[in-house]
């Protein structure tokens, strides 16, 4: 479970960093919103993975 959460967290952080770079660069809003959605899905994935691991007793 730990490895899965780490992988998802790295992906989420990557979405946030790239989104911040797009904001600083003044890119189109669709790129920024794509990064926001990716980060939000990453947070949901972390929560889901932890919850699933607790239910299965891992």
Give a quick precis of the structure.
InterPro entries: DUF2530. The protein has helices at residues 2-25, 29-56.
> Which blocks of ≥5 consecutive residues have pLDDT under 50?
none
Shape: elongated
Provide the number of structural domains.
1
- How far apart, in Å, are the first and last alpha carbons? 8 Å
Helical fraction: over 70%
The sequence of SSEs as H and E is: HH
Global mean pLDDT: 93
Q: What percent strand?
A: under 5%
**How many E-type strands?**
0
Q: What's the gyration radius in Å?
A: 14 Å
Structural class: mainly alpha
| Count of helical stretches | 2
Sheet of most strands:
none
Pfam family, one: DUF2530
InterPro entries: DUF2530
Keywords: Membrane, Transmembrane, Transmembrane helix
Transmembrane segments: 5-25, 31-50
Describe this structure in words.
With 58 residues, the protein is mostly helical. The protein has one domain (2-56). It is built from two helices and no strands. The chain has helices at 2-25, 29-56. Helix 1 (2-25) packs antiparallel against helix 2. The longest helix has 28 residues, at 29-56. The model has no long low-confidence stretch (mean pLDDT 93).
List the topology elements.
Layout: H1 2-25, H2 29-56
Helix pairs in contact: 1-2
Keyphrases for this structure?
58 residues, mainly alpha, elongated
